[in-house]
């Protein structure tokens, strides 16, 4: 008898129907619970994929130092994957990230290098590129690595299709590196070109962990606009309020980008009838407790 390893537990996350938050007009809202991955987010999938595929190509081997810029979830997932496989992991991130995220990365043995909150992810990416150019480690580069969306083409997309028995009509995902939406869109549209794929970005002035509006120079090269049917701008208050609704009305304890995904799903539901709307719940809410967002009185 063979027993599974931790790697084997990545993916195959639940897809659950919302019970108390009613989309109306015969619409069904389904949440894909990516916080059920072992390191707690959707990023477990591409983190493992990028390391596994690079190993297959002979680009990296256990004992190497890997360098990656991250705002949080990818870093946690990579720290876990590096611990499993025996790599030194150096993560570069804005110091404005929540303390829980930083603590989770170091718990897995990763080394943190921070840039200022003002420098943001753009500054983190620039520093990572500089360190790699100096030979201080090897890149994975989630923003340009095709093994990022490949993970979702091979796993997340097929899971959504199978779990809805091919009935999915709309797929909604926050956009950060865009790996999730790129890979899932490719798979679903190969099965049914009529499936609508909706991406979410923060409206001007909003700061929502896990959702980005990239300057043109930093737009992830894995992003292909043709794979998305529509983009919705999500407000910060809107995302935070719907995050709290998920917890208080559905028992789904998730992060701010997941609240944004619910908000986007409800907007789409106002326009359609008898639709099967799937949205990604990217991570768990426990890594946001220190921000005070769940303590806010609404």
TrEMBL record:
Top EC class for this record: transferase
Binding site for pyridoxal 5'-phosphate: 73, 176-180, 257
SUPFAM superfamilies: Tryptophan synthase beta subunit-like PLP-dependent enzymes
E.C. number(s) listed in UniProt: 2.5.1.47
Residues bearing the modification N6-(pyridoxal phosphate)lysine: 43
Molecular function terms from GO: cysteine synthase activity
InterPro entries attached to this UniProt entry: Cys_synth (IPR005856), Cys_Synth/Cystath_Beta-Synth (IPR050214), CysM (IPR005858), P-phosphate_BS (IPR001216), TrpB-like_PALP (IPR001926), TrpB-like_PALP_sf (IPR036052)
Coiled coil as UniProt keyword: no
Catalytic activity: O-acetyl-L-serine + hydrogen sulfide = L-cysteine + acetate
Pathway assignment: Amino-acid biosynthesis; L-cysteine biosynthesis; L-cysteine from L-serine: step 2/2
Cofactor(s) for this UniProt protein: pyridoxal 5'-phosphate
Tryptophan synthase beta chain-like PALP domain mapped to chain residues: 7-283
Keywords: Amino-acid biosynthesis, Cysteine biosynthesis, Pyridoxal phosphate, Transferase
One Pfam family here: PALP
UniProt record, GO biological process: cysteine biosynthetic process from serine
Family that this chain belongs to: Belongs to the cysteine synthase/cystathionine beta-synthase family.
Protein name: Cysteine synthase
Organism this protein belongs to: Pistricoccus aurantiacus
Gene: cysM
